[in-house]
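Fill in residues.
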């Protein structure tokens, strides 16, 4: 145990004083030699700052003493769960840079909250400015108090002496130097912060015995248990992803200080680059605090300083540890204290400069004459900075609080959640208006104040073995969790997202109820939102049921449902997951443009089901494999298995975002809410119930979602048919427009709308989706017998064909509706995949509630496919990549957890890739091109194994590699021309003669300019891939076949057994 004040030597004071002197010198330089007398100079540095100092300043001001001192203490007590925050912070930076910042910069506002006046009203601006000012008044003293605590522990000098002195110094250089002084002192202070943090990490690791000791001790003490999924607890994955991440996003997106620095660079591109780098930088420093927390736990795992009253507050833990360790390293306390003050002064100076801008722009400027604004702006701003005196006095209040992090986050959550909600309403919800925004903000403030301050009435609560000091254990009344009101038991990390959600939901509803007729058209009414919400709630409830009440802790249960599922739910799940939004939305558009030739698929798909049931499925089942591609290892080699698994995983990564993007397009058209806000929310909900519920949750949610999909499709058919004048009208118009020309037998491999393109292209494409799909096989394996699996496959083919027939009918109804005024030509819609949504919203004037049913149905189809994709990818990654590296004991005890983690990580990557999907024009060709490259190879490999007994490992690999090279050239070549604006397929005639409005036409490029092989219809890509694999694979196998080589009969199709010896 150390004596308070005994740790600081003259060199420690020297390090501390140098930090203060350099900071003051920088401020003095910009105050006296580089005077800033105008607002543009004082607040934005004349928009001439460089990327590097601005980025460093953003990082340093975010990593206050609160982060450096209290986050390690948080890790010490609650574990390393904040590691998820470190991983998510770069995502926060990217979202701010590319979603919010462009809007704010283009709005040409100098004050972040000035955007609210332009978008909503001056009342919203004043409200947000007041909230920000109040938060800053509370935040400022916390920022100064934290390093003052450390200084007191090291020197014995009271906090109430240190804090005012440090505040005065910061006030001085910020007041005279403006934003340039702030940014350049931040750059210097960043060096001190990083140096001290790294030194503590390195010296700490050495002092406790090395990295291995830290790892083992932390693991034994459950400090590395970061895979917890209890949504109500503080230290879980969900509290970080939904709580801490959104809280930090709030600090970036709604923070005037951050926005002000972004405006100090000259262009939007530079500002975006600064913000992206900032996210990665802050993430790295938060990671260091996690490491330091584990080092502290390793040091005191047998003698907790909190329980023994060596320290009395969590925020004193890190200074206690540094001072305890510094006996062997002279000078460490001085570097540590200087580093903490660097972080704190950086944050505090930014707060002062930002609040000066807000008070001047939002309160004073409107009362000043133009002359005073022009001549006295600099002096006025410098005077406002002195508001910091008030903040300094409030340090007294901070001492009365028990834990700084929960207090700060609770207080900030009340305001920040509200401001973030308003920002989302403004930027991402076009239907939002001023009344709705104000209503949402007030409701959020009231409810969050109740929850936040209610939490502050309750308190929290170490091992005491092997302590070599005497101590008194102070008992305190520990509240039974069940005695605390349920809302106060929610982790404090959720404060900001709850406040944000309340603001957005209430604001949106209030805006819809109070909008004027002159405002932009919105098709969703309250009953539409109810239909959509019911779909999401039921899906979530099913997943939650199987996750918490029917737990699945091993692979057999999680991936295969214990092989106890019934035929009906599995069949329905197979159908629903196949009919994604791609089918429901994009296929009717395909019929609209290219005709009803896809009707042949309704015949081909049931045949595919029979082939799968009696040719391929018996082989897979007898091979007793969990992963479909495990069969390739038994039949050929492990290299074939790995290749197939890598290809399928890549396909799922690319396919997942498209599946979610489709319904988000429809939701955007119906509500005006941006795809970028809808998609992540839907993805996270699906990831949640799939992660915790496994295959049973997937299958039973599919069963419910099947009802939604069918109801939506049938309703659209009925309402659409009535709206255009009946079935006879549809038939006559479609026939006249060549949409029913399904007996097109011309021998043209370039044409998309021929019988041959469906027979040799589309039918095989769908066959590959069934025969080579791990998701389909996994569900068939969830029933107990081969006979039942066969029945599922046959019924699946018939069911998909029935729903495909509905998409063909919908396409013809759409053509009947727009046969005289094509929405694509007139740019009423910009993309083919928006056609069905446009049609539904158009006819919904005659059928209220139809948009809600339609969007819910599309989301049902998409969620079903996406959840199946997640569960399937987990099985592939675990079985084919991870399992071989895991100990038998780990496989037995941790299988369920590992699979859930895989679902989680895979879903996050897939969600992020939704941004990429927005650059593509047509979804069906894109999906079939990507699928063609991979499915052609996969089905070719499986067909070699099942149908070609002479095939061997060398032949299979050669065939697969050749296919990948050739078909990739073909597929990506087609995509190149597509992105160049070339018409890849010739559409049937589209008319605009009946349009009663003006529009601009687009000149179509000549299709003959496309290189000949890239004009081949995309339907043939899979067929070409399969053909190449089979031919090359068979030839190479015959050339490399060894004499006497015999294949196991169980690994080839039963239909070939009679021909084998």
């Amino acid at each position: 145990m150390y004596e308070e004040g005994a740790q600081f030597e003259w060199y420690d004071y020297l390090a501390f004083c140098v930090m203060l002197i350099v900071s003051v010198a920088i401020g003095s330089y910009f105050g006296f030699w580089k005077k800033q007398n105008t607002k543009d100079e004082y607040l934005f540095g004349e928009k001439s700052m460089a990327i590097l100092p601005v980025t460093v300043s953003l990082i340093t001001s975010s990593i206050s003493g609160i982060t450096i001192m209290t986050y390690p203490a948080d890790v010490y007590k609650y574990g390393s769960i904040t590691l998820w925050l470190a991983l998510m912070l770069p995502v926060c930076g990217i979202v701010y840079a590319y979603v919010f910042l462009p809007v704010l910069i283009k709005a040409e506002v100098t004050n972040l909250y000035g955007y609210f006046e332009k978008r909503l009203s001056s009342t919203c601006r004043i409200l947000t400015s007041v909230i920000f000012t109040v938060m800053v008044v509370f935040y400022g003293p916390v920022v100064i108090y934290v390093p003052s605590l450390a200084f007191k522990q090291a020197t014995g000098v009271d906090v109430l002496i240190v804090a005012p002195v440090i505040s005065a110094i910061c006030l001085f250089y910020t007041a005279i130097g403006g934003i340039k002084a702030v940014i350049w002192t931040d750059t210097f202070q960043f060096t001190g912060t990083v140096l001290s943090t790294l030194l503590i990490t390195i010296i700490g690791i050495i002092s406790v015995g090395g990295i291995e000791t830290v790892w083992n001790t932390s693991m034994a003490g459950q400090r590395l248990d970061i895979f917890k999924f209890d949504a109500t607890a503080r230290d879980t994955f969900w509290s970080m992803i939904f709580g801490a991440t959104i809280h930090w996003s709030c600090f970036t997106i709604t923070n005037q200080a951050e926005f002000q620095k972004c405006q100090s660079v000259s262009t939007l591109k530079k500002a975006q680059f600064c913000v992206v780098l900032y996210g990665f930088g802050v993430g790295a420093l938060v990671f260091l605090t996690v490491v330091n927390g584990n080092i502290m736990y390793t040091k005191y795992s047998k003698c907790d300083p909190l329980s023994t009253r060596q320290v009395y507050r969590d925020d004193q833990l890190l200074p206690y540890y540094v001072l305890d360790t510094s006996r062997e390293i002279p000078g460490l306390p001085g570097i540590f204290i200087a580093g903490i003050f660097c972080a704190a002064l950086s944050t505090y100076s930014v707060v002062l400069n930002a609040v000066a801008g807000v008070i001047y722009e939002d309160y004073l400027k409107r009362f000043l004459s133009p002359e005073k604004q022009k001549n006295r702006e600099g002096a006025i701003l410098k005077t406002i900075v002195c508001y910091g005196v008030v903040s300094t006095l409030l340090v007294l209040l901070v001492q009365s609080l028990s834990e700084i992090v929960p207090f700060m986050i609770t207080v900030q959550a009340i305001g920040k959640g509200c401001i973030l909600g308003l920002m989302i309403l403004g930027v991402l919800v076009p239907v939002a208006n001023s009344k709705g925004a104000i209503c949402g903000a007030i409701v959020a403030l009231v409810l969050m104040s109740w929850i936040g301050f209610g939490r502050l009435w309750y308190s929290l609560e170490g091992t005491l073995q092997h302590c070599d000091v005497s101590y008194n254990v102070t008992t305190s009344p520990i509240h039974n969790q069940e005695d605390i009101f349920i809302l106060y038991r929610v982790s404090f990390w959720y404060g900001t997202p709850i406040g944000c959600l309340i603001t957005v939901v209430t604001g949106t509803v209030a805006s819809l109820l109070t909008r004027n007729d002159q405002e932009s058209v919105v098709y969703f009414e309250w009953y539409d939102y109810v239909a959509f919400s019911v779909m999401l709630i039921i899906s979530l409830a099913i997943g939650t049921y199987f996750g918490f009440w029917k737990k699945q802790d091993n692979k057999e249960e999680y991936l295969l449902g214990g092989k106890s599922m019934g035929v009906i739910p599995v069949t329905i799940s197979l159908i629903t997951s196949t009919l994604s939004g791609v089918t429901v939305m994009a296929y009717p558009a395909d019929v609209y443009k290219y005709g009803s030739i896809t009707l042949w698929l309704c015949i081909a798909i049931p045949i595919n089901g029979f082939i799968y049931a009696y040719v391929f499925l018996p082989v897979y089942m007898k091979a007793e494999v969990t992963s479909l591609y495990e069969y390739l290892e038994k039949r050929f080699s492990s290299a074939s298995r790995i290749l197939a698994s890598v290809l399928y995983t890549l396909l799922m990564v690319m396919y997942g975002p498209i599946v979610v993007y489709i319904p988000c397009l429809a939701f955007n058209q119906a509500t005006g809410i941006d795809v970028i806000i809808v998609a992540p929310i839907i993805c996270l909900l699906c990831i949640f119930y799939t992660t915790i519920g496994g295959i049973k949750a997937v299958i039973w949610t599919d069963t419910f979602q099947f009802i939604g999909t069918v109801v939506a499709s049938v309703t659209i058919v009925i309402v659409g048919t009535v709206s255009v004048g009946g079935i006879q009208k549809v038939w006559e118009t479609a026939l006249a427009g060549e949409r029913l020309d399904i007996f097109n037998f011309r021998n043209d491999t370039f044409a998309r709308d021929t019988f041959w393109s469906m027979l040799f292209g589309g039918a095989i494409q769908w066959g590959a989706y069934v025969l080579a799909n791990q998701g389909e096989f996994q569900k068939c394996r969830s029933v107990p017998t081969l006979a039942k699996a066969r029945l599922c496959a046959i019924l699946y083919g018939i069911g998909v064909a029935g729903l495909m027939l509905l998409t063909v009918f919908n396409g013809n109804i759409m053509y009947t509706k727009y046969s005289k005024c094509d929405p694509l030509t007139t740019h009423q819609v910009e993309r083919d995949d928006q056609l069905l949504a446009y049609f539904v919203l158009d006819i919904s004037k005659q059928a209220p509630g139809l948009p809600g049913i339609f969007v819910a149905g599309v989301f049902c189809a998409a969620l079903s496919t996406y959840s199946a994709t997640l569960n399937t990818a987990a099985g592939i990654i675990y079985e084919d990549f991870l399992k071989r590296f895991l100990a038998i004991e780990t496989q037995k005890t941790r299988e369920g957890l590992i699979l859930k983690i895989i679902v989680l990580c895979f879903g996050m990557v897939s969600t992020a890739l939704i941004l990429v999907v927005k650059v593509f024009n047509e979804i069906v060709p894109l999906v079939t091109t990507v699928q063609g490259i991979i499915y052609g190879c996969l089905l070719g490999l499986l067909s070699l194994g099942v149908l070609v007994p002479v095939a061997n490992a060398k032949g299979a690999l050669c065939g697969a590699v050749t296919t990948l090279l050739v078909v990739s050239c073909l597929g990506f070549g087609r995509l190149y021309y597509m992105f160049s604006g070339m018409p890849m397929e010739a559409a049937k005639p589209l008319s605009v003669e009946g349009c009663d409005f003006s529009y601009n036409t687009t000149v179509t490029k000549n299709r003959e300019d496309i290189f000949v092989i890239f004009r081949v219809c995309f339907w043939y890509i899979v067929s070409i891939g399969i053909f190449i694999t089979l031919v090359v694979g068979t030839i190479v196998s015959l050339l490399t076949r060894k004499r006497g080589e015999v294949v196991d009969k169980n690994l080839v199709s039963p239909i070939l057994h009679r021909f084998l010896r």
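Residues 159-208 form the longest helix (50 residues).
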